[in-house]
TrEMBL record:
This is Gamma-glutamylcyclotransferase AIG2-like domain-containing protein. SUPFAM superfamilies: Gamma-glutamyl cyclotransferase-like. Pfam families: GGACT. InterPro entries: AIG2-like_dom (IPR009288), GGCT-like (IPR013024), GGCT-like_sf (IPR036568). Gene3D superfamilies: Gamma-glutamyl cyclotransferase-like (3.10.490.10). Residues 3-130 form the Gamma-glutamylcyclotransferase AIG2-like domain. It comes from Streptomyces griseoruber.
Amino acid sequence: MPFFVYGTLRPGEVNHGLFLRGRTLREQPARLTDAVLYDGPGYPYAVEEPGGTVTGDLVTARPETYERLLAELDRLEEYTPGDPRSLYERVVREVTTGEGPVRAWVYVAAPAVAARLRARGERLAGGDWPARR
């Protein structure tokens, strides 16, 4: 399954070069609906919220790199299944590309993090991480 990336893993961002360069078959613009972005300490959080839209990229990994990449991205995103201390959760969501809808892995803010962000976080207008500059 491909990954929807919206922050530091997008092309031109720091973690794209560290984790994705040379390990993908395809990268294409995409949008995640019913989510908004919040500013984090150097990276964004997608928080599920009806009516919002997050801009990002759909990344399809090379089959020979997929399992290792999945494990590396889980570590990067501080995601451990079932651990309430995780910053993110990896969930399957439908994203939209120019070719239509695609199911993809998306790292969204874990429930406790999402609650803190909704209460006192800084929401990024427009849902596009690179556009914040």
